[in-house]
Amino acid sequence: MINRTAFYGLALFTAVLQTCFGFFAGFVKGFSPYLHIFGKLAGATSIATWIWLSVLMHYNRRPLSTHPFARSLAHFTSFIILTGIWTALAIMIASQMAYECSVHDLWCAVGCFSSALGFLTSIFSAIAATLVYQAAMTSGAGLEVNVAQASRRATDIDL
Fold it and tell me: Which residues cross the membrane (predicted)?
């Protein structure tokens, strides 16, 4: 079975990188009319993303916890929301690349990389949401089950 924690970590990693490249793209005075806004928005959103993913990872391996953040529903909902947010931000940044890349300078690469990181965060979040959902449904208790218990049951069933 594919480990959901790996995708938590990958989403966290790309969000941390996005903090640097999003703000870098945001504070550049290039040729696009909105990249400075979208870059700052991506940088700020990435800070919130990696803080929230750190909270989720804190409750990720606590099978006896009854805290709401330890439930599959919290993890699934969080990753679905992150998927939508990061897809939208990546599209916003990508929409500005025609302006930046027409002059073939460094800011084209920064913007493209920032957009790619947004898409990667979205993809990793979607995969994590899928894995959480599959484990919860396989457990038989639905999304109210503890996320660590759901994964253990899904692993036991797959073996």
Answer: 6-27, 34-53, 73-94, 106-133
Please classify residue 64 by burial: count the beta carbons closer than 10 Å to its beta carbon, then call 0-12 exposed, 13-18 middle and 19+ buried.
Answer: exposed
pLDDT band at 55 (very low <50, low <70, confident <90, very high): very high
Query: Rounded to an integer, what distance in angstroms lies between the CA atom of residue 146 and that of residue 67?
Result: 9
Instruction: Kindly report each contact of residues 63-70 with a partner whose C-beta sits within 8 Å and lies 24 or more positions away, as own/partner.
Output: 63/146, 63/148, 63/149, 63/152, 64/146, 65/146, 65/148, 66/146, 70/146, 70/147, 70/148
CB atoms within 10 A of CB 133: 19
Q: What is the pLDDT of residues 75-120, one digit of tens each?
A: 999 999 999 999 999 999 999 988 888 877 777 888 899 999 999 9
